């Protein structure tokens, strides 16, 4: 027994010593290789199927809607009040080029995205299946990333369809009906057009190879610096590699880093013609062809300086950078210049300190974009159910939103998001927070907001509106009146019948301020609704509210029947071609929209009588 205890102690010391660490490292490497091979095999099987689904779906959408886009674009350009005659004719002559390139670009993009998604998603899901909190790791290592990847490809097609059909056509309709700013149409003089085109073509011919050469010369620097940083983090277990769960992903990043470098150089090649074409805009703005020629030279230096900043290389550029703006404050190109924060602006973002010891789990304390989106739709669902129970919203409103009818579904599609936003902003203004409170109570500030361009577009305007509400010192009746303005979207009859305690201010100036805030919130909600995933999520919320309206309006009906009816609604309205046909006829027929609006107004019951 003494010999056994001695042997056991010797083996324990051996395992805990350097040989044990080497053995665990080798086992970890072998396990990563096995998971990588398994994920790659799943990707090779699932990848072609996912690529075929995405490619065929996207091309069917693009080719099927291509005639609609042609008609809508020419109609918007011809009927808009924002452009002058010369600019309209010029655009009509130029617009066939992007219209012909659009199917080609969609085909190439859908194929590459489908192939990358079909191979990469199973590979990532395989490593995620063996996480610390996962059960049945062996089973999930083989199953995860198979059916979910195919479902994700179908979701991609659905989101692209929503963007191409709804978002693009809505933007064109808004461009067609919107009044020009300051009452002045955007136009160019006919004798300046040839000179602008000549300088633009010269910019494309010069800047495209010059910027491409600069980008390809920076490729070795980007490759070496990227590998050096990733290997340093992997060896020293700093940065994103502090947790053991992140080490396999760091290995994938090291393996695929050359592909990322090549793609960044190709992106610069694709964007360079547009940077050179902007020289024609400079000529028109400055009324001087010399400024356009100076821009052609200066943009190469600006791109070199921008790439040095991204690679953390030496600041500045050795290339010449002449001044191409007569006004020194606007001497930088808007496409590359980083907007400097205003010192006097109270919402200037805080500069985060670089901490290489930051844990991967610690980064989860930052608010994620998905969390913000989920909170918005949770608020819409909760407030929608409360308004349906109170009789403020009707079942016809929800049905109109599900069917995509703009006349009857405007309150749900535009008013309800604005109503939820204003309630959140009022709650944030009353609290001591410096940011915005989400529906679940999470505080989003300039320092912990998601690092996403989508959030930057809408967060600061909402933060400004919150400060305006706080500075206005609204009383309770004015707050309720503002909520009524946001929800009803200008429907005065529905506003008069809804008695929520909101009283219209007697002061005309105060009333105008509240109406301006409501219009801004409705405009922000309308802009957010044009993003691809928003319509799919909104449709899911509307179907939930429709099922809830069935149970509340017919309280005597068995709940099982209501659930069965909601299931049939989801099945029948998953892809409503009849509703799309009706909406398409409403887009191109103003009389149909007016008739639908009149019929919706006539059939709207009195809210007070319903209550």
Question: Any chance you could write out the topology, listing elements then pairs?
Answer:
Blueprint: H1 2-16, H2 18-79, H3 85-94, H4 96-128, H5 137-143, H6 147-177, H7 193-217, H8 219-236, H9 247-286, H10 289-310, H11 369-389, H12 395-403, H13 410-430, E1 436-437, E2 443-444, H14 453-472, H15 476-488, H16 492-497, H17 508-528, H18 532-553, H19 559-572, H20 577-587, H21 590-602, H22 607-610
Antiparallel strand pairs: 1-2
Helix pairs in contact: 2-4, 2-6, 4-5, 6-18, 7-9, 7-10, 8-9, 9-10, 11-13, 11-18, 12-13, 12-18, 13-14, 13-15, 13-17, 15-17, 18-19
Q: What can you see in these coordinates?
A:
It is a single chain. The protein is mainly alpha-helical and 611 residues long. The protein has three domains: 30-184, no CATH class; 188-331 and 360-365, no CATH class; 369-610, no CATH class. Helix content is 72%, strand content 1%. It has helices at residues 2-16, 18-79, 85-94, 96-128, 137-143, 147-177, 193-217, 219-236, 247-286, 289-310, 369-389, 395-403, 410-430, 453-472, 476-488, 492-497, 508-528, 532-553, 559-572, 577-587, 590-602, 607-610; strands at 436-437, 443-444. The chain has a two-stranded antiparallel sheet with strand order 1-2. β1 (436-437) and β2 form a beta hairpin. The longest helix is centred in the N-terminal third of the chain and has 62 residues, at 18-79. The N and C termini lie far apart (86 Å).
């Amino acid at each position: 027994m003494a010999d056994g205890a001695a042997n056991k102690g010797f083996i324990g010391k051996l395992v805990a010593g350097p040989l044990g660490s080497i053995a665990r490292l080798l086992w970890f490497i072998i396990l990563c290789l096995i998971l990588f091979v398994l994920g790659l095999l799943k990707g090779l099987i699932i990848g072609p199927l996912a690529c075929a689904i995405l490619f065929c779906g996207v091309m069917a959408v693009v080719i099927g809607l291509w005639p609609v886009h042609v008609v809508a674009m020419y109609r918007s350009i011809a009927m808009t009040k924002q452009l002058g005659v010369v600019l309209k004719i010029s655009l009509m002559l130029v617009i066939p080029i992007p219209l012909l390139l659009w199917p080609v670009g969609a085909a190439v993009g859908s194929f590459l995205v489908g192939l990358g998604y079909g191979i990469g998603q199973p590979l990532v899901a395989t490593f995620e299946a063996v996480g610390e909190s996962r059960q049945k790791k062996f089973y999930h290592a083989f199953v995860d990333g198979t059916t979910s990847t195919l479902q994700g490809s179908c979701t991609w097609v659905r989101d692209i369809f929503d963007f191409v059909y709804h978002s693009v056509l809505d933007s064109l309709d808004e461009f067609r009906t919107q009044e020009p700013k300051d009452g002045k149409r955007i136009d160019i003089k006919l004798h300046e057009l040839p000179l602008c085109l000549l300088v633009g073509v010269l910019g494309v011919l010069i800047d495209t190879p010059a910027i491409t050469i600069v980008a390809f010369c920076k490729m070795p620097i980007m490759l070496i610096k990227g590998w050096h940083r990733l290997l340093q983090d992997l060896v020293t277990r700093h940065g994103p590699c502090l947790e053991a769960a992140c080490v396999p992903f760091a290995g994938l990043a090291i393996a695929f880093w050359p592909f990322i470098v090549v793609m960044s150089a190709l992106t610069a090649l694709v964007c360079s013609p547009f940077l050179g074409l902007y020289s024609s805009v400079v000529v028109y703005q400055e009324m001087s062809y010399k400024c356009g020629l100076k821009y052609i030279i200066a943009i190469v230096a600006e791109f070199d300086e921008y790439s040095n900043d991204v690679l953390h290389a030496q600041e500045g550029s050795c290339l010449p950078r002449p001044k191409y703006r007569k006004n020194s404050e606007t001497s930088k190109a808007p496409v590359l210049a980083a907007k400097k924060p205003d010192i006097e602006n109270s919402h200037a973002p805080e500069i985060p300190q670089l901490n290489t010891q930051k844990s991967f789990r610690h980064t989860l304390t930052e608010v994620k974009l998905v969390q913000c989106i989920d909170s918005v739709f949770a608020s819409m669902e909760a407030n929608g159910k409360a308004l349906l129970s109170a009789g403020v919203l009707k079942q016809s409103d929800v049905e109109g939103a599900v069917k995509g009818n703009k006349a009857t579904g405007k309150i749900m599609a535009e008013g309800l998001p604005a109503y939820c936003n204003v309630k959140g902003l009022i709650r944030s203004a009353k609290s001591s927070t410096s940011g915005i409170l989400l529906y679940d109570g999470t505080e989003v500030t300039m320092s912990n907001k998601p690092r996403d361009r989508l959030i930057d577009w809408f967060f600061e305007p909402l933060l400004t509106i919150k400060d305006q509400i706080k500075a206005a010192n609204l009383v309770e009746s004015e707050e309720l009146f503002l909520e009524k303005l946001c929800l009803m979207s200008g429907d005065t009859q529905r506003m008069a019948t809804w008695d929520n305690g909101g009283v219209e201010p007697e002061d005309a100036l105060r009333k105008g301020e509240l109406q301006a805030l409501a219009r801004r919130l409705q405009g922000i909600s309308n802009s957010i609704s044009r993003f691809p995933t928003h319509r799919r999520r909104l449709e899911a919320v509307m179907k939930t509210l429709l099922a809830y309206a069935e149970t509340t309006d017919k309280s005597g009906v068995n709940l099982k029947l209501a659930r069965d009816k909601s299931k049939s609604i989801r099945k029948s309205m998953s892809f409503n071609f009849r509703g799309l046909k009706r909406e398409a006829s409403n887009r191109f027929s103003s009389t149909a929209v007016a008739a639908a609006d009149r019929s919706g107004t006539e059939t709207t019951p009195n809210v007070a009588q319903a209550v």
